[in-house]
Write a structure and sequence with these properties.
By secondary structure, the chain is mainly alpha-helical. It has one domain. It is 84% helix and 0% strand. It contains three helices and no strands. 0% of the residues are buried.
C-alpha cells in the first residue's frame, strides 16, 4: 500500500487492524465493501452523537421553560 492511501485511512479514523485488513484485500470489490462498512460505522456514531445532543438540547429547553 502506498503512503498516501495509508495516511488517508488514518485520517478517516481507521485503526491499524483495519488498515492491515484493507491492505490484505484481494480485489477492488472487497476493498470497497470494507470501506463502505467502515463508513456506515462512522455514520452510525454520528447519529448516536446527534441523539445525545438532542437530549441535552431538550433538557436545556425544559429548564428554561420552568423558569
Amino acid at each position: 500500500m502506498d503512503e498516501k492511501t495509508r495516511q488517508n485511512l488514518i485520517d478517516a479514523g481507521c485503526d491499524e487492524m483495519f488498515i492491515n485488513k484493507y491492505d490484505r484485500c484481494c480485489d477492488k470489490a472487497s476493498c470497497e465493501k470494507l470501506l463502505s462498512e467502515h463508513r456506515k460505522e462512522l455514520l452510525d456514531d454520528i447519529h448516536k452523537k446527534e441523539k445525545n445532543i438532542d437530549c441535552l438540547d431538550y433538557l436545556v429547553y425544559m429548564m428554561k421553560k420552568q423558569k
